[in-house]
Amino acid sequence: MKKFASLLSAFCALVAMTFIVGCQEPAAPEAAAPSNTASAAAEHGHEHAHGHGAGPHDGTLADWGGGKYHVEFTVDHEKQEATVYVLGSDEKSPAPIKTDKISLMIGDPELQADLLPVPLEGETDGLSSRFVGKHEKLGIVQEYAGSMSAEIEGTPYTGDFKEEAHDAHDHK
């Protein structure tokens, strides 16, 4: 009986150790290279979305030029229409630019559309902070992810975005 009690104790200890060791978080690798999104973005002229809230038009924001500009993607599913607003570094103020189009690329559903300038009141001399385009696939009610790009004064800008449902803009 004493031998059975010893085996039972050893078994219980083994089970307990398995749970204790198995539930720990894996340690972070110490030799991992630090991430440098800014330099990677500068190398290929491409900015990545990074946790912005909703823009002033309740759209999804992306960076252009390391925060020099922000672009806000909005979509009207009924009109099958996307509107992109170019904003300043404060993510709120219109920042009119001179370009003939903003290219919109979305992966799912796959679509590409050129958004043309539709200047806001007071925007003159070929400058616009609003760009609008239509595509039948924009009628699909879902959260979109993609990129917006344009050339401003000879400099290419590209920013990735990913819509996420939030209170005032829920795609159900």
**Alpha carbon gap, first and last residue:** 64 Å
Count of domain modules: 1
What is the overall silhouette? globular
Largest sheet: 8 strands, antiparallel
Strand order of the largest sheet: 1-2-3-6-5-4-7-8
Briefly note the structural class of the backbone.
Answer: alpha+beta
Please write out the topology.
Layout: H1 2-22, H2 37-44, E1 60-64, E2 69-76, E3 81-87, E4 102-107, E5 110-117, E6 130-134, E7 145-152, E8 155-162
Antiparallel strand pairs: 1-2, 2-3, 3-6, 4-5, 4-7, 5-6, 7-8
Write up what this structure looks like.
This protein is of the alpha+beta class. It has one domain. The protein is 17% helix and 32% strand. The chain has two helices and eight strands. It has an eight-stranded antiparallel beta sheet, with no helix packed on it. The longest helix is centred in the N-terminal third of the chain and has 21 residues, at 2-22. The model is unreliable at 3-8, 10-51 and 168-172 (pLDDT under 50).
